[in-house]
Design brief:
The complex is a heterodimer. Chain A contains 14 helices and no strands. By secondary structure, chain A is mostly helical. Chain A folds into two domains: 57 residues; 168 residues, MetI-like (MetI-like fold, Orthogonal Bundle). In chain A, helix 9 crosses helix 10 and helix 11 packs antiparallel against helix 14. The radius of gyration of chain A is 24 Å and the shape is globular. In chain B, helix 4 packs antiparallel against helix 10 and helix 10 runs antiparallel to helix 13. Classes of the chains: A mainly alpha, B mainly alpha.
Chain lengths: 281, 305
């Protein structure tokens, strides 16, 4: 077989692998350094770069806490918001998509086209109007203002619609009706259980997006005890931590490690999920 | 049949929460932002008055605002062009049947990883790596590459380069995956037929691949543009949160935030920044979408044959 390849293919293949190794190094090194430096002392970090972990994880953590950074609290806050956002996004996106896929009602096509257009609108730019409106409702310093908007997540509905269309079984729905199931009952008892794999993929994306979201929380949340992880990360740049590199890296690492763990567990879902929303027309 | 029609009414019930959610948390904030942009409202004052287009006149007379707009476009373009170029090269290699690259799944998985990293943590990481006493300076000075430490983050070109690099680093993997998915969806029989007809590799790429992946290209372009115009976390956290040095990484959203977070909290003026950028971005995104979308129907027909 090998003789079939021309010399140029061999050279090209060598080049390809070489370039990809370079890209892998560029991709991994910043993340790796972030994690490794969380285990090194400030003195070690200042002495130079190293890719090997050290043994100062605990002392870095103690420094971080002693400077008043409540990492566990931020972790819990971020986790609470992200989980609730995920549930709201997944449930309401599937609900909306099911309504579009399963029923023929007037204005359905227009609604769907509108949702596609909505994906292309920079909604973050209305944050000031959003902030002022939430203040009026008394929600400006509350998690509700961060979670409830995901009832209408255009991108997720788009994904959910593609997914439901690919798994839809009209016979099953009709059978449910004959058995006397209500329409909502059919959605909850028949459709949701079949849609679990898709819901899971959507959920991962919703979770990561919410976990990493800085801007909205930064504008809305003012109480220190409600700060999310990205907001705490932002305070790490302050003067208090100026020369505590080990502690800073630990704070940064704590905010990215959970996502890396999720990625290693579910990378298949994630990588396949990226193209699902876009590739199918 | 009549029961089917009766059932169909339930569709409204299912989409009602979305519509309600959109009206309350999506549409009204937009309307409210527009309304605020015509007032002199601050966070400190209980009352405010209608001042017509004065906020907008101020913006267009303000060189900082124009700098922010230009910066945002430049920072986006400078990361998008290499991003799509590298993604194209990788996607072509990964899907090439003659090269038969091994472990495509693993390469792809690694390249996508930065996209999931918290942008604010990544920016803080680079802030600390490139600070004056940071490890990059240590390394370069120790190994005699630099005669003395450089204040990287006070240099406009380097600050911009870092923002562009981080953006590129975070997004090239995702773009590669999207392009690959689009390319593998093309039926191999098309390429075989073209090959029989004597088409070269380049011709196959421009005549078959490009037209057929056009919908995905539009998707990548539009979503990247919309994201890029709202760039905030990385330029905000890389330096002092004011677009320093010399306003070189001041983006639209930073500009808006600075007005919002000024001592008075001038939310009327901040809203006007949001409105202009909102209109500009939406117009460009919709234009790209509708201009490019029309023609791809021919590609679909080929695919279905």
């Amino acid at each position: 077989m090998k003789t079939n390849y021309s010399r140029s293919t061999h050279i090209l293949r060598f080049l390809v692998y070489f370039l990809m190794v370079v890209l892998v190094v560029i991709t991994i090194i910043p993340i790796w350094m972030l994690i490794v430096n969380a285990t090194r002392s400030t003195v070690e970090i200042q002495q130079g770069l190293s890719l090997l972990p050290s043994r100062y994880l605990v002392s870095n953590y103690k420094i971080l806490l002693s400077k008043g950074l409540d990492l566990p609290r931020g972790f819990l806050n971020s986790f609470t918001i992200s989980i609730l956002t995920t549930i709201v996004t997944v449930y309401f996106s599937l609900l909306t998509a099911y309504g579009i896929v399963s029923y023929d009602f007037k204005g359905k096509k227009a609604l769907y086209n509108f949702i596609i257009v909505l994906v292309m609108i920079p909604m973050q730019l209305s944050i000031i109007g959003f902030y002022q409106w939430m203040s009026k409702l008394g929600l400006s310093d509350s998690y509700a203002a961060l979670i409830l908007p995901s009832i209408a997540s255009a991108g997720s509905v788009f994904f959910a619609k593609q997914y439901l269309e690919s798994i839809m079984l009209h016979e099953l729905i009709d059978a449910g009706r004959i058995d006397g199931c209500s329409e909502l009952g059919i959605f909850h008892r028949i459709m949701l259980p079949i849609a679990v794999p898709g819901a899971f993929t959507m959920g991962i994306f919703a979770f990561v997006a919410s976990w990493n979201n800085f801007f909205t929380a930064f504008i809305l949340i003012t109480s220190r005890d409600k700060y999310t992880l990205p907001m705490l990360v932002q305070t790490l740049r302050g003067d208090v931590y100026r020369h505590e590199y080990g502690a800073i890296y630990l704070g940064l690492a704590a905010s990215v490690v959970p996502i890396i763990v999720i990625y290693f567990l579910f990378s298949r879902y994630i990588v396949n999920g990226i193209s699902m929303g876009a590739v199918k027309e | 049949m009549s029961s089917k029609i009766k059932h169909n009414q339930y569709g409204y019930l299912f989409v009602a929460p979305f519509i309600l959610g959109f009206l309350i948390f999506g549409l009204y904030p937009v309307v409210n932002t527009i309304a605020l942009s015509f007032t002199d409202k601050t966070l400190m004052s209980a009352t405010s008055s209608f001042i017509g287009f004065r906020n907008f006149q101020n913006l267009f007379a303000d060189s900082t605002f124009m700098t922010a707009i230009t910066n945002t476009w430049e920072l986006w373009l400078m990361n998008f062009i290499p991003q799509i170029a590298i993604a194209f090269i990788l996607a072509i290699w990964f899907t090439n049947t003659r090269l038969k690259i091994k472990g495509v799944g693993i390469w792809r998985m690694i390249f996508y990883m930065p996209n999931l990293m918290m942008a604010s943590a990544v920016a803080a990481l680079f802030f600390s790596l490139f600070s004056f006493y940071g490890p990059v300076n240590q390394l370069l000075v120790r190994s005699d590459i630099l005669p003395e430490a450089v204040d990287f983050l006070r240099n406009p070109q380097i600050a911009r380069g870092l923002v562009v690099f981080i953006q590129w680093w975070m997004w090239f993997g995702q773009t590669t995956i999207l392009l690959m998915a689009a390319m593998t969806a093309i039926s191999p029989s098309l390429y075989e037929a073209a090959w029989v007809d004597g088409a070269g590799t380049f011709q196959m790429f421009t005549r078959i691949t490009l037209p057929l992946i056009k919908p995905v290209l539009i998707y990548i372009l539009v979503t990247s543009l919309v994201g890029g115009m709202q760039m905030f976390d990385i330029p905000y956290l890389l330096t002092d949160g004011r677009g320093s040095p010399a306003n070189s990484i001041l983006t639209n959203n930073i500009n808006m935030y600075m007005k919002f977070h000024s001592s008075k909290g001038h939310i009327g003026a901040a809203s006007s920044v949001g409105v202009i950028v909102f209109l500009m971005t939406s117009a460009v995104a919709l234009l790209i979408f509708f201009l490019l979308r029309e023609k791809h129907s021919t590609g679909k027909e080929i695919k279905e044959k």
